[in-house]
Amino acid sequence: FETSSTTMGFALYELARNQEIQNKLRQEINEVLQQYSNKCSYEAIHEMKYLDQVLSETLRKYPVLPALDRLSKAAYDTGDPRYVIEPNTRIIILSYGIHHDPEYYPDSEKFDPERFTDEEIQKRPACTFI
Asked: How many CB atoms lie within 10 A of CB 88?
């Protein structure tokens, strides 16, 4: 599968379902492109903060990889003697589950790019967005 086209497809789907978000993003794109003589450059795209929020929210709701597979290289003490990760233990991290955990993302089925403002990102532990 192609990760970029999958992400773009889900982003367009959510924008079609959420007219207000689509309008806000369109306004940002038009304003930034005007500053760059209607040229879509790296610098112009880098200034599109709301576009970044929309893409981050798309990847949160529809992660490209719903699970990550890792292999421990050393013993890891979790702080609970019942849960010690031994070397060469295969670990599966469910990014989909983390991205839809209501503790970190209330109303997780709602498409809300505002979850990815700088202020909102600072409120969550770093490992809650993979």
From this structure: 10
Across 20-115, the runs of DSSP E, i.e. the strands, are 68-71, 76-77, 84-85, 90-93
* CB contact at 8 A, 38 and 31: no
| Residue 5 in domain | yes
Number of domains in the chain: 1
Burial-class residue 60 by CB neighbours within 10 Å (0-12, 13-18, 19+): buried
Domain extent, residue 102, equals 1-123
pLDDT tens per residue across span 72-130: 999 998 889 888 999 999 999 999 999 999 999 999 999 999 999 999 999 999 899 99
Alpha-carbon gap, residue 93 to 99, rounded angstroms: 11
**Which helix (DSSP H) or strand (DSSP E) does residue 23 occupy?**
helix 19-35
Q: Is 128 inside any structural domain?
A: no
Mean residue pLDDT across the chain = 95
Whether residue 129 is contained in a domain is answered as: no
Q: What is the pLDDT of residue 113?
A: 98
